[in-house]
């Protein structure tokens, strides 16, 4: 079992603790090279994370491989108890984890980071309690023979996470993988590694050495070394569509299972009979404006019935104007900073394309912070675009910023067709008081997660995952653990 460690509530201490190290075999192991980690809100370097390559990745996989057999031999319920204890250890240090997360992601501590730590710990705890649910079946075949199926772990799992909700996505992968008896090597996001390292190290205090390993580095050097390693039995990835496609090819070449949670362009349909106030609040929550719109499920295409669109836009604008944009660590802040200059430039390019489109209107809300010490270019106002053609890039492509396109509709079949017109299929929502409209639209929408009159965040016990180019496989829920982190073995005894 790795040593216990004491930390005060100071993010600087955490950045120093993880300076150019990986977490391998239960200890911090120096890496050969380092990468700067920048606080997007200030533009300042907050620390140097490991820039791992083939050697560090190989060491982490070797540690996970060596630990796997004895971990798998523990009774599943015992593994679950340890994972539950690991979740409690995370909650004990929730505030410092949230501060670290705010510093490295630019997300506001009050509206985003504290909630993310709580949800991540909740997911790990949820899986910890499912150890005894890993059941097989007996099959009636021949009364003189015993035929049964058992569920067994896959081996060493490679888990790769992005920067936008790194802890929740870490939890959705690590929780079920460990309880199912696998060992794991996580590659953290090089943009935001430190909160992931801290959460992992707190968990590792309750796990045998080698069961959970975390390495950091770029996708090209560390991510590719991990997915291509011959001892990896399964890849679980959350990130962009382009990288997901690349990883899918790697997995296909090695014939190993892969789960992909990729991008989205989620539609929100507001019907003529919707509760307008509820729909406006739901649009703000669904667009994840408090995460600067940097969310895969962001309700970024909002189709409002023609009879409501003027009132909807007016109320939406009034509420968006109230959101405070500023320092992520300030308790008054609702909206923090965009992750990096590359992402900010991408968002600006989409907005410029909208502005250059005839008939389009671009409205920005809220006030950009003027505080000296904050990076002026990395803050963006919530932006609502209207009057775009249905096939405009801002309508069809994932922007991953605080930009929503609002369009009117009057023909129900046509709006369903528009909602289904992108190559994504992650989430969708419908706002109506009519049960028949709810039943019909939810059946026809081409998305893996469809909600009526709400745009909530993930629930640990409800399976989540996209259709089409939004990915393959599910996360959250018991089914996700059984289907994606175990394999079925048939045993016939004559
Ligand atoms: P990204 O694809 O650039 O990077 C994701 C992770 O993959 C990072 O850790 C990165 O280092 C690694 N990586 C990059 N190239 C790799 C390679 N060749 N091999 C192995 N690993 C590699 O994505 P990002 O910019 O960090 O995150 C934003 C994207 O994530 C958006 O498209 C968003 O929609 C998606 N996302 C999806 C979900 C979901 O649940 N569907 C959730 C959050 C984010």
Number of strands: 20
> Largest sheet, if any?
7 strands, mixed
Bound molecules: nicotinamide-adenine-dinucleotide
CATH fold-level label of the largest domain: Aldehyde Dehydrogenase, Chain A, domain 1
How do the strands of the widest beta sheet line up side by side? 14-15-16-13-12-17-18
CATH class group of the largest domain: Alpha Beta
The computed structural class is alpha/beta
Distance between the termini: 42 Å
Layout: helices, strands, pairs:
Blueprint: H1 11-17, E1 21-24, E2 27-30, E3 34-38, E4 45-50, H2 54-73, H3 76-92, H4 94-105, H5 109-128, E5 137-138, E6 146-153, E7 156-160, H6 166-179, E8 183-187, H7 194-204, E9 212-215, H8 219-227, E10 232-238, H9 241-254, E11 258-261, E12 267-270, H10 276-286, E13 301-305, H11 309-322, H12 341-355, E14 361-364, E15 383-386, H13 393-396, E16 403-409, H14 412-419, E17 427-431, H15 435-444, E18 449-452, E19 471-472, H16 477-485, E20 486-493
Parallel strand pairs: 7-8, 7-10, 8-9, 10-11, 12-13, 12-17, 13-16, 15-16, 17-18
Antiparallel strand pairs: 1-2, 3-4, 5-6, 6-20, 11-19, 14-15
Residues 160-165, 187, 189-190, 218-220, 223-224, 227, 238-240, 243, 246-247, 261-264, 296, 398, 400, 426, 466, 471 line the site of nicotinamide-adenine-dinucleotide.
């Amino acid at each position: 079992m790795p040593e216990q460690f004491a930390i005060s509530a100071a993010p600087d201490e955490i950045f120093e603790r993880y300076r150019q190290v990986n977490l391998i075999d239960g200890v911090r192991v120096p890496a050969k090279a380092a990468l700067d980690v920048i606080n997007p809100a200030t533009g300042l370097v907050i620390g140097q994370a490991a820039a791992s390559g083939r050697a560090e990745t190989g060491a982490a996989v070797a540690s996970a491989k060596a630990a796997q057999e004895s971990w798998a031999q523990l009774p599943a319920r015992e593994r679950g108890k340890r994972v539950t204890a690991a979740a409690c250890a995370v909650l004990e240090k929730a505030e410092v984890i949230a501060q670290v997360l705010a510093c490295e992601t630019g997300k506001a501590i009050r509206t985003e980071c504290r909630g993310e730590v709580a949800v991540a710990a909740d997911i790990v705890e949820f899986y910890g309690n499912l150890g005894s649910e890993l059941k097989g079946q007996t099959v009636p075949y021949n009364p003189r023979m015993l035929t049964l199926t058992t569920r067994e772990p896959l081996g060493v799992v490679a888990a790769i996470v992005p920067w936008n909700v790194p802890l929740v996505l870490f939890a959705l992968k690590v929780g079920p993988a460990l309880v199912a008896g696998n060992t794991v090597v996580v590659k953290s996001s090089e943009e935001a590694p430190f909160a992931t390292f801290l959460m992992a190290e707190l968990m590792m205090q309750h796990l045998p050495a080698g069961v959970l390993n975390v390495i950091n580095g770029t996708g090209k050097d560390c991510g590719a070394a991990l997915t291509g390693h011959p001892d990896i039995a399964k890849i679980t990835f959350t990130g962009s569509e382009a990288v997901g496609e690349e990883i899918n090819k790697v997995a296909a070449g090695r014939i190993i299972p892969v789960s992909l949670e990729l991008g989205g362009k989620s539609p929100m349909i507001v019907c003529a009979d919707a509760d307008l106030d509820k729909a406006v609040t739901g649009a703000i929550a669904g667009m994840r404006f408090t995460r600067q719109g940097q969310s895969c499920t962001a309700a970024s295409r909002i189709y409002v019935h023609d009879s409501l669109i003027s009132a909807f836009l007016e109320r939406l604008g009034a509420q968006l104007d109230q959101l405070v944009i500023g320092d992520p660590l300030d308790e008054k802040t609702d909206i923090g900073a965009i992750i990096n200059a590359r992402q900010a430039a991408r968002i600006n390019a989409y907005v410029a394309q909208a502005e250059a489109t005839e008939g389009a209107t671009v409205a920005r809300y809220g006030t950009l912070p003027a505080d000296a010490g904050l990076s002026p270019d990395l803050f963006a106002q919530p932006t609502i675009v209207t009057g775009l053609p249905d096939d405009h890039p801002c309508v069809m492509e994932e922007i991953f910023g605080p930009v929503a396109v609002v369009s009117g509709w009057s023909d129900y079949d046509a709006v369903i067709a528009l909602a289904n017109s992108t190559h994504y299929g992650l989430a969708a929502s419908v706002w109506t008081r009519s049960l028949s409209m709810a039943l019909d639209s939810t059946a026809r929408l081409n998305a893996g997660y469809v909600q009526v009159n709400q745009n909530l965040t993930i629930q640990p016990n409800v399976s989540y995952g996209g259709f089409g180019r939004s990915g393959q496989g599910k996360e959250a829920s018991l089914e996700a653990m059984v289907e994606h982190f175990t394999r079925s073995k048939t045993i016939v005894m004559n």
